[in-house]
């Protein structure tokens, strides 16, 4: 015989530690996994995959968006989620510019900044948590539209340059 559903949440309060551990690992992999010897400068997967034409920026935005979604699941307020999305948008827009964008990707660490925002939020759990699901859905949809736009722009620029050099 099964027990009736409880009116209280059965989520373990220590589950935030596991989520934070995953976010720290992902942020480190994306922004500073490899330290350049003798410099102390970290290099992550995000600027490397950003070098791949078309799909690199798309994949980078999707991986960064996971941090935002996880922050929303941890109860982050809408204002903080918006700031996190702005960090990703800045990274994506400037990162889409050939050469300059690639250099920018090596210095701007949107995932590290976003992780710091999540950690700050979790440090002060007494703050008001407004979990507007539609706001979160709109943020993620906006990131998806931005990604599609960047991929389209990259394809158009690439086909223009190919046509310019090949005369077609």
From TrEMBL:
Keywords: Membrane, Transmembrane, Transmembrane helix. Pfam families: DUF4112 (PF13430). The chain crosses the membrane at residues 48-69, 81-101, 133-166. The keyword Transmembrane applies. The keyword Secreted does not apply. This is DUF4112 domain-containing protein. It comes from Mastigocoleus testarum BC008.
């Amino acid at each position: 015989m099964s027990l009736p559903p409880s009116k209280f949440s059965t989520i373990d309060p220590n589950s935030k530690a596991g989520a934070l551990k995953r976010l720290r690992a992902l942020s480190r992999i994306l922004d500073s996994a490899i330290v350049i010897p003798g410099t102390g400068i970290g290099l992550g997967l995000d600027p490397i995959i950003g070098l791949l034409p078309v799909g690199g920026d798309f994949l980078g935005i999707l991986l960064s968006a996971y941090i935002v979604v996880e922050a929303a699941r941890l109860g982050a307020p809408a204002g903080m989620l918006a700031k996190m999305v702005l960090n990703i948008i800045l990274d994506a827009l400037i990162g889409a510019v050939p050469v300059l964008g690639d250099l920018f990707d090596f210095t701007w660490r949107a995932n590290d900044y976003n992780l710091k925002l999540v950690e700050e939020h979790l440090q002060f759990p007494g703050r008001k948590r407004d979990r507007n699901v539609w706001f979160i859905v709109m943020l993620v949809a906006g990131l998806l539209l931005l990604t599609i736009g960047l991929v389209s722009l990259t394809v158009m620029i690439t086909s223009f340059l190919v046509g310019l050099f090949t005369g077609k």
